[in-house]
Amino acid sequence: MLKTPLNFTSLLEPVPGLTPFTMVFRGDEVLVSDSSLVTIEGGGEHGQEVVIGSLGDTLYQAIAVGQEYLPEKGSDFKKMRSLLGVLDEDLLGIVGRGYQLAEWRRTHRYCGACGTETTLVSGDRSMKCSSCSLSFYPRISPAMMVLIRRKDQILLCRHTRYTTNRYTALAGFVEPGESIEECIHREVFEEVGLRITDLRYFGSQSWPFPNSLMIAFTAEYLSGEIALDLSEINDAVWFGPGDTLPEIPPEYSVAGHLIRESMRELAG
Length: 268
Prior knowledge:
The chain is an alpha+beta fold. The chain is built from three helices and 16 strands. Strands 1, 2, 3, 4, 5, 6 and 7 form a seven-stranded mixed β-sheet that branches. Strands 11, 12, 13, 14, 15 and 16 form a six-stranded mixed β-sheet that branches. A three-stranded antiparallel β-sheet has the order 8-9-10, with no helix packed on it. Strand 9 (127-129) and strand 10 (135-136) form a beta hairpin. The radius of gyration is 21 Å and the shape is globular. The model has no long low-confidence stretch (mean pLDDT 92).
């Protein structure tokens, strides 16, 4: 799955002796050359650098530039999603971190309450208003994912917003005041009209498109007939061990891992 390497160290400030590598983001694109990341010199001239962390002897930093920034010959900006399965998986995990932190710095230059310019707090991952002292931390949006089982079958759904025929597990964002478990029960009933039981945690994954934390579960079918919310779900089908699966998410996503692991388990 997409994740940060185990030997990666998160840092708030530069550490002497490490070689800096500054990743460049323009919107949801990152600067690359032949599918390799491109660093930038003198990043402070183009925007606010933010320290991500270290891997080996490299200090990774990130910077968000405007649309007016023109890459040098031989390099270009590419959508991060297009690099999934192309760029080294460990490095891609760092890219995901970098994008979220660069966007946080870019979008919190000024206080949302009084409009005063913010400053980076030393020793903390926050920006603070110099006037009203309001603090701003990187945004993380928790989202649930659940794969429903019914005996030896799993429920796969095609989401309305998808432009492909890919089928996957149900997912949805946690609302204010909800627990993750409450969110799962609500989303399942709203989207497919089913009641479930026996929630079991599977795993989690940072999903930087743009700032989600996907928290995945399995659940057992309890009652109900499929009733689609067509604004969210186009189709929902039960699949068993002998059935041919439709297109499903790749293994670098928690959804792809969840589906494959569940099918292997049900097949015995």
